[in-house]
Specification:
Distance between the termini: 30 Å
Number of strands: 24
Structural class: mainly beta
Oligomer: single chain
Helix content: under 10%
Strand content: 35-45%
Order of helices and strands: EEEEEEEEEEEEEEEEEEEEEEEE
Strand order of the largest sheet: 1-2-3-4
Length: 294
C-alpha cells in the first residue's frame, strides 16, 4: 500500500473519561489515538487502549480523519471511505479499471489513484515507464473521475490545500530512473509544470527518502532525505559521508525548499531516524535515537 507512513503516530486530543456509576456499553471516545503503518491505520480508545478500528488504506492528508481503500470488483474498482477513528463507512463509489489509492486530500474531496503496485513494491522505488495514468476521484461520486495520461514517470505526493493541484514526483529518465524532480499537475487544465524554489524551479535531485510527515493543517509536506543514492539508481555515491536534509514542500503556495541538517545527523541508520512536527506546525524535529541527537 503506502510507503512508510506520513507520520508514525498521530495523537488527537484525549477524550474525557466516562462518568462513574453510568450503565450500558461504554460511549465511544470523542477523539482517538491513530497509529499508522505502511498498510493502513489503527485507531485506539485513549481511555483504555481498546482497538476501535484496524483497517488497510491511505489516510486523508495531515489530520488522518478519513481512510480510503480500494476493493477490486471485476474490471472495476470500488473506492471506499471510512472514518479513521471508528471505521464507520462514509461513502463508496465504483470506478472503471483496476486502481489503488496513492494519496488523498486533507478535506477528503479528492483521491489520486494509479494501477496497483506489485506485491512488496513501494512507490518510492520507481518502475521504469514512459507514461503514467493517474485517476483523481471524488469519493462521494458527486463528480466524475478525472483521468490523466501523462508523458513521463510520475508518482503522486500530495494535493494542494485547495485540492486544485496534485503535486508529483517525476522520475528521470522515465525508462531508467536515476533522479527525480518535484512537479505539479493542474487538475483543471491537465498540464504539468515545475515547482518553484527560490527564484528558479526545483532542481533535479538524487537521494534516498527515509520518511514523510505533514502538520495537522496540511500546509506542508516534509520529507527526510539522505544524499546517498537510492538503490534503484545505478550511480556511485560521491566522496564523503551522505548528507541528510529535509525537503519542504509548501502545499498552499506551491514552492519547495531543502533544509540542510547538522553533520551529527549525516550517514545514520534510517531505522534510528524520525521526524515530528509541533501541533502548531511552527517547529520540525529530527531525531537519531542511536546517537541521542535531536
Amino acid at each position: 500500500m503506502r510507503r512508510r507512513g506520513l507520520v508514525p503516530l498521530l495523537a488527537l486530543t484525549m477524550a474525557s473519561c466516562t462518568t462513574e456509576g453510568t450503565s450500558g456499553p461504554p460511549r465511544p471516545p470523542e477523539n482517538a489515538v491513530l497509529l499508522g503503518s505502511s498498510a493502513g491505520v489503527t485507531s485506539l480508545d485513549p481511555r483504555n487502549g481498546r482497538v476501535l478500528f484496524d483497517g488497510d488504506g491511505v489516510p486523508s492528508f495531515g489530520d488522518w480523519s478519513m481512510v480510503f481503500r480500494t476493493i477490486s470488483s471485476g474490471g472495476s474498482t470500488i473506492l471506499e471511505a471510512r472514518r479513521s477513528a471508528t471505521g464507520e463507512a462514509r461513502s463508496a463509489v465504483k470506478i472503471p479499471g483496476a486502481l489503488s489509492v496513492r494519496v488523498a486530500s486533507q478535506d477528503g474531496s479528492r483521491v489520486a489513484l494509479m494501477r496497483p503496485l506489485p506485491a512488496g513494491a513501494s512507490p518510492w522505488v520507481p518502475e521504469p515507464r514512459a507514461s503514467t495514468l493517474i485517476v483523481v476521484a471524488d469519493p462521494t461520486g458527486g463528480d466524475d473521475p478525472m483521468r490523466f495520461q501523462l508523458k513521463g514517470n510520475f508518482e503522486p505526493e500530495a494535493f494542494s490545500t485547495d485540492a486544485t493541484k496534485l503535486y508529483l514526483i517525476s522520475y528521470v529518465p522515465p525508462r531508467a530512473p536515476v533522479a527525480y524532480r518535484v512537479t505539479q499537475l493542474d487538475l483543471a487544465s491537465g498540464k504539468v509544470s515545475p515547482v518553484t524554489a527560490g527564484k528558479g524551479v526545483a532542481e533535479t535531485m538524487t537521494g534516498t527518502r527515509l520518511e514523510q510527515l505533514a502538520p495537522p493543517d496540511g500546509t506542508f509536506l516534509f520529507t527526510l532525505y539522505t544524499t546517498q543514492p537510492a538503490g534503484y539508481a545505478e550511480v556511485r555515491a560521491g566522496e564523503g559521508r551522505p548528507v541528510a536534509f529535509v525537503h519542504t514542500l509548501n502545499l498552499d503556495e506551491g514552492w519547495a525548499h531543502c533544509i540542510g541538517l547538522p553533520k551529527e545527523l549525516w550517514g545514520g541508520d534510517p531505522a534510528d531516524q524520525a521526524m515530528s512536527v509541533s501541533p502548531d506546525g511552527g517547529s520540525l524535529y529530527v531525531v537519531d535515537t542511536a546517537r541521542d541527537v535531536i
